[in-house]
Amino acid sequence: MTARTILHLDMDAFYASVEVRDQPDLRGKPVIVGGHPTRGVVLTCTYEARKFGVRSAMSMVEARQRCPQAIVVPPRGEAYAEASRVVFATMRAVTPLVEGLSLDEAFLDVTASRAMFGDPETIARRLKAQIREATSGLTASVGIASCKFVAKVASDLNKPDGLVVCPVGLEAAFLSPLGIERLWGVGPKTAEVLHRAGLETIGDLQRADFDALARALGARGAHHLSRLAVGDDDRAVDPSHEAKSVGSESTFDRDLVGPDPLREPILRHCEEVARRLRGDHLRARALVLKVKRSDHSLITRRSTSPTPLTEAGELYALAIELLGRIPLERVRTRLVGVSATALEPDHESEGAQQELFAERNERPRALGAVLDAIEERFGRDVIRRAGG
Ligand SMILES: [Mg+2]
User: Fold this and answer.
1) How far is the CA of 203 from the centre of ligand 1 (A)?
2) Could you give phi then psi for residue 313, rounded to 5 degrees?
3) Which of 14, 57, 325, 372 has most Cβ atoms within 10 angstroms of its Cβ?
4) How many angstroms does the Cα of residue 243 sit away from the middle of ligand 1?
5) Which CATH number belongs to the domain containing residue 179 in this structure?
6) Ligand 1 mean position, distance from CA 11 (Å)
7) Which residues are catalytic?
């Protein structure tokens, strides 16, 4: 079997970069794209805001405490969807094997493109330049590897405007110095279990005793992580991959009591979901309402619709019907969320792109210890910075 060549491309601080591009006065400043000033969350922010500790998904309240001088810009979904369409069209000119993960992130299988377009690094460099040109200046970071997982990790190591190559055959060594949090499936809880077992880096995990790992995580979990830790990930890039859902939710500063106060946030979430469905040319056949009580117990109700849902009003009517099915009298609620599922392309709009999720959490990547460690081990050829 020939080794695959997979690119993971991720636009840098996507929403915020679109805002800075369209309002040049914002350049060089801490900019937050976010929602409601007291209840909303940070969708994304510029790297200048990240220096103050602002992060995606952080509450606006906390973000403004950390960076009071930040300029807060409300999201413009249409502008992001338009930029996304340009980015995806540019990627699809390189290969039809493009699997979108969100508006600004995708895997590309360029194995068959090599004969025509050159080695993977040349392909990636050209793609980055083409995207920058086609979007009037937006930058992307790209990771190149023989599998999805390592490509995704690589794209993340040198943001913004990064280009990181993991040479074929060096996957395990490439991953070794990185923190175990980077492994898919390792959330805060699993990380805590692993830390307690003395495992900090993926290299620690590679050397860990499998049986001990299986006792801590279960056989399946241990098997999954041991494989990922050495870059063993044989999943193909699937261009037909579809968005599972488009959702919006919020946690309240203070618990809300009873069902009535939930109507207003539910309406806002329906508006947000409708905006994103519209921006991405999708419509939904089902709606899920999610309510978390103050004791963290979660209740979900799902309803399907005979007609496709696109409008906030339609979503809201269904959501309120679902709310009526949850016994909430005098119950304290800490979170409410709405998600549209059973998605299908809305063929009435052209150039439909399949997916839209909230911008992923983009941790700032220090070029520090991790990259230096890899560089020290393998030389400069492994890590090539864009333009370098
Ligand atoms: Mg991104």
Assistant:
1) 27
2) -65, -40
3) 14
4) 17
5) 1.10.150.20
6) 4
7) 105
pLDDT of res. 351 = 31
Q: How far is the CA of 159 from the centre of ligand 1 (A)?
A: 9
According to DSSP, the residues that pair with 240 across neighbouring strands are none
Tell whether 380 is covered by a domain. Answer: no
Partners of residue 245 on adjacent β-strands: 341
- For 265-270, the CB contacts below 8 A with 24+ separation are 265/39, 265/336, 266/316, 266/319, 266/320, 266/323, 266/336, 266/338, 267/312, 267/316, 268/36, 269/319, 269/336, 269/337, 269/338, 270/312, 270/313, 270/315, 270/316, 270/319, 270/338
Three-state secondary-structure class, residue 184 = coil
Per-residue pLDDT, 248: 92
Of the candidates 99, 149, 155, 82, the one whose C-alpha atom is nearest the C-alpha of residue 124 is 155
Same-domain status, 252 and 338: yes
Is the pLDDT assigned to residue 78 strictly greater than 60? yes
- pTM score over 0.85: no
Phi, psi dihedral angles at 197 (to 5 degrees): -85, 5
Q: Tens of pLDDT along 267-299? A: 989 988 988 888 777 788 889 999 999 988 889
- Nearest Cα to Cα of residue 20 among 80, 60, 67, 62: 80
d(CA 196, CA 219): 18
Instruction: State the distance from the centre of ligand 1 to the C-alpha of 325, rounded, in angstroms.
Output: 38
In angstroms, what is the span from residue 114 Cα to ligand 1's centroid?
A: 25
CA of 362 to the centre of ligand 1 (A): 7
* Tokens coding 271: 């508006």
Could you tell me whether strands 31-34 and 71-73 are parallel, antiparallel, or unpaired per DSSP bridges?
parallel
Range of the domain at 72: 15-77
Number of domains in the chain: 3
In tens, the pLDDT along 33-61 reads 987 677 677 889 999 999 999 998 788 89
- Please name the residue that has the structure tokens 């496709």: 308
User: What strands, in cross-sheet order, belong to the sheet with 282-293?
Assistant: 245-257, 332-345, 282-293, 298-309
